[in-house]
Amino acid sequence: MRLGVDVGGTFTDAVLVDGDRLHTAKAPTTPGDQSEGVLAAVARVLARAGAAPREVTGFSHGMTVATNALLEGRSARTAFVATEGFEDLVALGRQQRPHLYRLCEGRPAPLSPPERRFGAPERMAPDGPVRDLDAAGARSVAEAVAACQPEAVAVVLLHSYRHPAHELALGEALAELLPGVHVSLSHQVTGTFREFERAATTEIDAALSPLLGGYLRRLAGRCSEAGLPAPSIMQSSGGLIDLRSATGHAAWTVLSGPAGGAAGAAYVARASGTPDALCFDMGGTSCDVCVVDGGAVREQGGGTVAGRPLALPMVAVHTVGAGGGSIAWRDAGGALRVGPRSAGADPGPACYGRGGREPTVTDANLVLGRLGSESPLAGGVRLDPDAARRVVGELGERLGLDVTRCAEGIVRVADAEMVRALRVVTVERGIDPRRYALLAFGGAGPLHAVAIARELGISHVVCPRASGVLAALGLVVAPRRRDRQRTVMLRGERLTAGSVARHVERLGDGARRELGEPQARLGATFELRYRGQSFELAVEGPLAPSPEWLREAFESAHEERYGYRDPEAELELVTIRVSASTPGADARLAGDAGRVGAPAPRPDRRATIDGERVRLRVVHGPPDPGAALAGPAVVELPESTVLVPPGWWGEVDDAGTIHLRERC
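The structure assignment produced for this chain is given below.
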């Protein structure tokens, strides 16, 4: 039995794969201590499967601890050590405005204030030491750091990605004087060049690791008491790592939650015969979007989270604050806005009956009849239509709208925000969304899918049977993976097949060793540029590519992205990234999917769609493979709701996945 648990802003989702059977469950997220919600969700899914904790052979976990801490500005008391003269590296950044036209918008402040920044008496050049760091110098720096009583220390020295000796010496001195204090060394966190990005990433790693470590140790203790195995943790790259590695490197897990959804989406895209898909995961708090090409999620060598750069491999996911719990409000100019503030799990939307007093997207969908109050939502939540009408009506009075028009406006604004997010990962990157299917998941995703598909010109919508817990399913099917990367700067006569193969071999051996799997599959990514360019393009390739292969692959990518190639320019291989991985579990998507007993019949209900009142046919429970659906209809899956508007029809494949298409 393989177990996956994903913590969201509103619900914690659990999936249990037992042979060819799939069991699912939800429990409210517990923001004060997420491990409580995790164990509650596990208990529910085990009860549904009739299984005992000791029968679980593998446990995979995706969470938002590091993400939330970064967004909320919570961190450990962190000291920052850099080469003398470079102590303010993170504060100075790239000396550019975060937004071109918002002149007063500032960047996030460094996590280490000036009084906790220290200079090391050393200097490395790309070719080796210019000023050696002796034992006395390392000890002196460690003593100064210890005097400020930090909870974590980030060490970032010039060119340590190539020459780590000085960082290692400082690490030893700090460990001797500060036993128990977390120390992050930049060459171990991210082995790439660009001092600012490497410094910012290492600072994040140091500042968040004590918080994440406390949560994971607490969770591991509760799992041990319950008879469950220690959890593996989802990384931002879409692969799982062991608990100890995640505890030591929080920066690797900042996108842990969205990465699980991306892994699940890619799995369903392959299984449903739609390997090219735009995926959007609309949960209770946010919406995550990504692109799946050929059944694999697009990755990138780095990104930005909460305005801070992370120079680490990660799935190319874009997030906006538009979820079912996103709060609708009137701005100073009188316009209707939705999000990014969310009602979260406590108190939740007003219709949950837990004290929420502000209108949300879920309240609007209930007012419009797209959600029903006849049966509870996943997690046992019963909806109160009167509470929803009251809070939506109050906002409507402030906007000069009746309750129905206000609810329609809330849904349209939320849809527009998600369309904008999908355009960021498609149109703004030269991708035509019309070539893809739209794969919608999350508790609220299939409810909004067709409206978003129309805006993007997409004619095929895919809604998995386990839509509401797909991120948890992604944790079960995700591979175990370790990544190693190094900046190599190879060009001219130094760029040969042999030199590239040697670097790949060293990185691959290190990744396999850290993974503990000598025979793990290796994959290589090469970041290249024309000499003189400022940024690189990444191409995946064989483990020992020739210079000719690298040039052709790079120039094809360059032409696709920028519209031209330059055969006369010198090619430069900047960074090599190698991943070692072992496959995850294989899940039968059509399993039980949470169904308990025969589905009860449901009467039709009235709903407002595109400004018209229509009669919705209600299908309660997962439809059987081969079933046909004609809009207007709504399908109430165990953890999500699928809306089939007028003019659209659906069919169910052998895995229980619902395919919606517009009538010709």
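Interim note for the steering committee: The chain has a mean pLDDT of 91. The longest strand covers residues 480-491.
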